[in-house]
Design brief:
Helices cover 45% and strands 16% of the residues. The chain has 16 helices and 14 strands. Helix 6 links the parallel strand 8 and strand 9.
Amino acid sequence: MPIGNYIFKLTKRISIFGSTGSIGQNTLDLVRRDRHLYQVVVLTGGKNIEQLVKDSIEFHPEVVVTAYPDLLDALKTGIGDLDITVAAGDNAILEAADRPADWVMSAIVGVAGLAPTLKAVAQGTVLALANKESLVAAGQLLLREAAKSKTKIVPVDSEHSAIFQALLGEDINTVERIIITASGGAFRDFSQRELEFVTPAQAQIHPNWSMGQRITIDSASMFNKAMELIEAKEFFGLPETKIEAIIHPESLIHAIVGFNDGGMMAHLGPPDMRHAIGFALNYPGRKKINVARIDFKNINQLTFSEADEGRYPALRLAREVMRRGGLWGSGFTAAKEIALDRFIAKEIGFLDMVKVVELTLNNLDRLGVLSNEPKILSDIVNVDQEARQISRMVNV
């Protein structure tokens, strides 16, 4: 932008919460391609200090934070004499979320990402939302706070990005149905008997996508898709009767929106998260991104089948959560996280995860703690903690 005899380059200040995960790394890959357009303000990560140090040296953020205080010394040693503020712990992440930024990526996995997301949304900027739990556990609260600050939330899940893009310029009242596609995960052709013996090592291999361990296992169990159904209900404000899932093994169609005149819009793209991230990064515009394109000459067929809620009971639980509202989503996300922990630790079987979640929700329902609408963060935190305690103890 010329001013007098000088030219000033306008850079976008960006913060990435969960920078060492797959979403964070794909975001940095896009930033790397146009370094002159971005100033990295915050990077946060977990236990992968080596990657956090490497990215901090390359992108030189103002602040770098690890969620684990016992790893602070290792992070400081890696950063060395660079002029970067180094910190650790939940409070440090919240303080980092207060740093002024033009664009914030919320990609911390799990309920741990909720508090920094709520803090960042108060800035009145663009929030790229990859943290599913923020909408599932606290959708109404998050959207209410975003409306107050005039923050624009742009979804980064490929399915919700697809819906978001298909709805641009459309009246939400004309939407008849939303169809979210699911690959079916690594075990879509397994019998129920075979699923009983699935191991954590098998479950963390996805047939189409490259993702982290936890989200890949969630994909195999369809808990990931269950979360996405609830997210769609919260984000787009549609009743659960208008939201459905379908198995689409090729993972080329990410979502379909059907309208009241019978027309449908399908969003297609290769299974590469950089498209959805790039869309959010450049929103409300579009920018050329060097990712693979679909070559229709090489596609023999696009196949679809029913997402049977008998075979995939996580989807049935998602329906219940959507119907009941209130704090059911908070209980669901907490119980799911503990069930996943117990499966990874080989304490329970693959099919037992949904049993843990259902029993936990039933117990919470009997206690009468799920019916109220969350008004403040502590409402969600209280249910989250109670759900975790029950989930750790419930026998299956």
